[in-house]
Amino acid sequence: MKEVLLVGNPNTGKTTLFNNLTKSDEHIGNWHGVTVENKEKSFFVGEEEYVLVDTPGIYSLCPLSFEEEVAVGTISSHKSSKIINICDRNNLQRNLYLTLCLLEQGCDVVLAVNEIDKNVIFKVDYKRLGEELGVSVVGLDAEKKETVQSLKNELQKSEKPKANLPYLKELHWEKSVPNCKGQDEDVILLKAYEKDEKFFDAIGVEPKQYFEAVPSDSVLILSELRYKHIDSLIEKCAKRTTKVYGESKFDRFALSKIFALPIFFSILAVIFYLTFFSLGAFLSDCLSAFLNILTSPILRFLEKNFAGSFVYDLFNVAIFGGIGTVLSFLPQVVLLFFFLSVLEDSGYMSRIAFIFEDILGRIGLSGKSVYTLLMGFGCSTTAIMTARNMDDKNAKIKTAMLCPYMSCSAKIPIYTVIGGAFFGAKNIFVIFGLYLLGVVVAICVSKIFDMTVLKSKEQSFILEFPPYRMTSLKRVGKILWKNVKEFIVRIGTIMVAMNIIIWTLSSFSFKFQYVAMDGGESMLETLGKLIAPIFSPLGFENWAIVASLLAGLVAKEVVVSSIAMFNGIDAGATKLISSSILLSSSVVYFSSKASVLSFLVFCLLYTPCTASMAMLSAEIGKKWTTICIFVQLFSAYIVSFLVFNVAFAIEIFGFWEIFGTLSAFVLLAFSILFICKKIKKKECDSCQSCKKKCKRNQKS
Question: What is the crossing angle of helices 427-451 and 260-276, to 10°?
Fold first, then answer.
């Protein structure tokens, strides 16, 4: 079994080629940091088996971030392995820089030029390019299986090509240096020119003496030599059109200071409307009806044979009721993932990073954080893992801690069922507001951390704009299937187990008597009533509501299935759940819109699911995970308290009365500050002795 490394710049089609060769469905995206760790899988060329290692995207062999260190470390420790270096045909000038870095290290390289972009900017003579570089060059479309056969043929060749790098003759030591035993002298010279401290630290050598033995501007000299050689290759082997890579007329609006944010929020508004209402609501209703058709015969059989016993309730309420309720929201989850994948695949995600780079820079983050936070709208667990690509440790911790504030897809049932009951068609504005509130709270938390215990250093952020592309239905289909499969598996394992546990706790007393027949308080009711007073200031002291929040610690979908269970709602009947929480006779009952808003805000901000907490612990450690949980509970409580009291006051006194009162207080406060500032300035201007005194104090 032979090992092959897959190496390239971000956004060149590495993971697409990996999926093609190994028949996998790893996540693909037009983004730096989509791959944050090595992925390995075997494939066959004829009868021979190969192990393909997909490394994170890099621009050179001098790592600047975590994922780049992973890639460079893998290359350094596997120099004897073949390397597939994938480049984008339309971005050869930048991509070939990494190719030269690999060849300088003596790597056995097969250059694969990806032709996935149909807007041709470069027409390349691959044979001539291979002769000039001294390596094998293959043109392919990373998405199509039939185009990779020539690449497989090159992998079977045992002879290592000899690279042609004439510019290396211009590198030299300006003064003698000690021998570095066990290391190639040419490699040492290159790394000295690159000022690569991490390389010298890894081999246990003090770099200062080597850095002083090369020109002071060695990094610039080496870069210019490489790019000069690349320009020569492009001139000889490629014909360029007048187009500019990634240029689009739409960017004049999408990236402008005036239109960028309105366009972004408009796109989000359309996505939310289609996901939670319109198409999403229609598909959810269809699936609910289908689930009722499937479960009705089984429930009729159980009712006939086990009516009045706990067996019927177990299946009707705990299993079919809870699972059916959450499963009915599958279309909306699928739609949300679909729109996120389209945004990412189209090339717009990089533009979003550019838009928010300045904003995030002020709270100790960078544009790299945008991808992680947007991933949080899908699933917090996977989003937390992508925080690894932060250069700065403190920025990584902050980014990972902010992911749970992004409203994940598991919260969709909560917003739709509970919000829909009280706000109807206006619920779209409530949902949009919740998503924005999560972002605002995340920004505030990050700013507080950046000013106190997690001050970030200046971070490097290399950003490229890929051209806008039509989304590949095949690629999006794979992403959707992967997420649907995970959702169904989650329902079939965690959800079933949790619903049975919750049903057991809510159906039996501590003496294990069946409450429905023998009366008395259930275990969950007893525990809920014990904790409920804590939530009284938030407007929902109902023990069953508190119990549903406790169940939501395992998985947020369980909140709605728990409410359905407490109110005795049949499988998939989401409209009945919405109706039931309006009735004072129900176990779970909300008395006002203010208490509903408070509950939704608490669900948005409080502790994430156990899977996310486990991922946080793995990525940032137990200490910061504990702090994260405490901060989330605290912020959820405070924000919910404020929302409830403001909303409750508006319900009693009216919006404009409250708005006018708050505006008057704000205006009065600013007026007082302005007057105090003017008085202080006037006193200082009229008191020369004060000025002299101030000058003396400054000198002393």
Answer: 130
